[in-house]
Amino acid sequence: MADTPKPEELSKIDHAPPLMEGWMDVPAEIRPGIYCYGGKAKNVAAVGMPNPRDWNPADDDWKLPENWEQIIDEGMRDRLDKYRSFKLFMDICVRCGACADKCHFFIGSGDPKNMPVMRAELLRSVYRKKFTAAGKILGKIAGARKLTEEVLKEWWTYLYQCTECRRCSLFCPYGIDMAEITIMGRELTNLLGLNIDWIAGPVANCNRTGNHLGIQPHAYKDMIDFFVDEIEEVSGIRVEPDLNRKGAEILFVTPSGDVFADPGTYTAMGYLMLFHYLKAQGLDITWSTYASEGGNFGFFTSHEMAKRLNAKMYAEAKRLGVKWILGGECGHMWRVVHQYMNTWNGPADFLEEPVSPITGTKFETATGTKMVHIIEFTADLIRNNRLKLDPSRNDNLIVTYHDSCNTSRGMGFLEEPRYVIKNVCNNFYEMPPNTIREQTFCCGSGSGLNAGEDMELRMRGGLPRANAVKHVHEKYGVNMLSCICALDRAVLPTSLGYWVPEVAVTGVHEMVANALVFDGEKERTTNLRGEPLPGMEDEE
Amino acid sequence: MNFILGMVIAAIGMGPVVMIPLVGVGVLKLNFFFGVIVPYAALAIFVIGIIYRVMNWSRSPVPYRIPTTAGQEWSFPWIKSNPIDNPKNTCGVVARMIFEVLTFRSLFRHTKLEYRNTETGPKIDYEWEKWLWLAALAFHYSFLVIFLRHFRFFMEPVPGFVHLLEKLDGFMQLGLLPINGLGTPGVYLTDMLLMLAVTYLLLRRIYIPQVRYISLPADYFPLFLILTLGTTGILMRYLIRVDITAVKELAIGLFTLHPVAPEGIGVIFYVHLFCLCVLIAYFPFSKLMHMAGIFLSPTRNLANTSRMVRHVNPWNYPVKFHTYEAYENEFREHMIEAGLPVEKGLDSEPAKKAEEE
């Protein structure tokens, strides 16, 4: 694993590409710290994806199948016929450059091939050669080039330097979405067995054990039991969660990252406490070990793989006989649930249109998919005064909010989280307008790029977000970044630790649980993290 | 290929565009060919080409509903939603598309990255940058107005809207030269705007390092073409007079399908016309198709209703996934030990069978 350069080193970035050099013949540099390890044979084989073998991107020989060119050829043709988006986005770009400096990877690296338009041109140039008359006849003059092994390596390198955050598509006058092109490109590379192990591993795990981390059912239960004890220690309340219980009204699905790693674990405890709090008001909810993953690394592999992993949610809902599904805080999980799930695995006609059992509110936005976001659920509870909250318990926090790419640009989920946050804490400050809401920046490690070996890439990609956090830290003393994405919770502590170490990361429901006042709870002296509450510093 | 080579190639491409009509009309006197046949052929390519391209795009389905949501979604009645940037229904989509097509709303968001390294670390700002948007808008609208003004040549009598446009567009003449017809003809605002905007779009392509890096000959060529088109048009109006009556005769002939090629129109007119013909014939095979493409863009023309209404993928196919049964078969023992509910006990037949397998 490469040493990550110090921030002072890393921030020396030149955004001007070379003056007299074209891009077509510059091969990609497979540089340690930037690339992720190749998918291991056992992980690729476990889900029946093509060409399983152990391979190393740093080697010259990528062990491609003999007919790899034909496979790409047919793969491209197939996808051009199936996806209008792909065909259109190959054709209509005018290279105005509006997207160029909108990508966090370009801002953080200055690598010209990380400009979304350039990354797309890597595929477009091959498309022109294979599928347009001008490209076939005029070649480079028409911006076309042959797909060589070098070009294929360049594809792989840059397709795994895009987090599918869609920020570019917001600024594109034609709505060209690099995420869509990356998704197609990754499908194509996967046809040759060119994946990264940080995606292939979780996919294989998720397929078998129900979650990315490969937690087996009994271990999953252990984790939940551990949370139950922790919660009791802090609040004196003993929560009684259900797992795999048939006949519950609601199935709860959340990313497994929250069950496994800090600070996501505190968010998971938050869910447990909220559910327990609402039990007396009639909440009947179960978790599942089989569908114990909201996130979907299959989405970073191929549509089909994503669909296979996603299918478990409805299957489990059907098996348990629940009425609807509640989903935890997660980014790409919600892009998948919101924009794909019902199309892939619906119609969910065995479920009912979701109604809050507490407030009676009908969730009109979720009448088809029958899956509600927990922030929607909680916002509705707060709006209807069903939660007794003491926001002053979060007074040690000066909070800002990071919109996750997928919930903002793939849903438009902007106000609900802010409403909840403002009700559970007293100090809230927004980051600059160009870095939040629909213009939000990626954490820098999304779409399966949150591995260890590509740390330099992650820190570079995380720079624009961290820089905005630093701004509010210096201006308002912000010390806590809240978010509704498990990947954010997994990666932002690292990225902020690198760029602005004074700021920590929390899920929104961790703050909700800290503010939530239970009947019969003991006087709380610490929050869920075991840190003293404001005014309780001496009680320790 | 560096940017100079890119421009040189585009310029070489322009050579024939100017030379062919110069020789063809100026020397070989092929007035009918360049005045009638080429325009009809170009128009045919334009129309058929666009239809073909749009049909070709339409043949590929839209399997998923993937709008880029650029504002608050419609959710609770007490949360204000943004019906244009995050449309909830067709009305919203129509509004979004109108804003997109007529005002370039997405491009309006454009900002410019300002990256500085300070003593306390990097500082990133996103600066005001509306020039691209402004130039794009000025260019497209000027082109439209100039196109509409040309109906003066196609129709007799000249339709009212053309007079109105000319009046509005030529208001500078009224201010500067009160006696109409004296001195140079009135200056059209759009002529200047078009040339300025296209020049700006060309210069920024060369001047801005990132845009320079991504530019292809196919980006310079249409700009050169339009610059030549504009230049020849302006030359005809202000410097090199052509026989306007004859031009009108030709244009009306084309327009009414009774083509004639009158003698005595200056050759510069044919250069102008040929540029236009090349432009429209080139159109369907080039990036200029963005004009039609924007209407089909799935990140813009779909409502954000995915969770409300099931979007059907015409080629959706069933997939095999790891079932609960297979999962329980693998972990049954552990599950029972941990006190998790199971479908089948350890002693049940299917469990034993699974065990054996």
Please describe what this structure looks like:
The complex is a heterodimer of chains A (540) and B (357). In chain A, 45% of the residues lie in helices and 5% in strands. By secondary structure, chain A is mainly α. Chain A has two domains: 7-30 and 50-194, no CATH class; 203-539, no CATH class. In chain A, the strands form two sheets. Chain A has a four-stranded parallel β-sheet with strand order 2-1-3-4. Chain A has a three-stranded parallel β-sheet with strand order 5-6-7. The two termini of chain A are 41 Å apart. In chain A, 64% of the residues are buried. The model of chain A has no long low-confidence stretch (mean pLDDT 96). Chain B has 357 residues and is mainly alpha-helical. Among the domains of chain B are: 3-16 and 71-267, Up-down Bundle (Fumarate Reductase Cytochrome B subunit), CATH 1.20.950; 324-356, no CATH class. Chain B is built from 16 helices and two strands. A two-stranded antiparallel sheet of chain B has the order 1-2. In chain B, a hairpin with a 2-residue loop joins strand 1 (111-118) and strand 2. The radius of gyration of chain B is 30 Å and the shape is elongated. Chain B starts with a helix and ends with a helix. In chain B, 34% of the residues are buried. Mean pLDDT of chain B is 92; it is low at 174-182. The chains are: A mainly alpha (540), B mainly alpha (357). Chains A and B meet through helix 3, helix 4, helix 6, helix 9 and helix 11 of A and helix 1, helix 2, strand 1, strand 2 and helix 10 of B.
In short, what is this structure?
Chain A has 540 residues and is mainly alpha-helical.
Highlighted features:
heterodimer; A: 540 residues; mainly alpha; 2 domains; four-stranded parallel β-sheet; three-stranded parallel β-sheet; 7 strands; 45% helix; B: 357 residues; Fumarate Reductase Cytochrome B subunit; two-stranded antiparallel ribbon; 4% strand
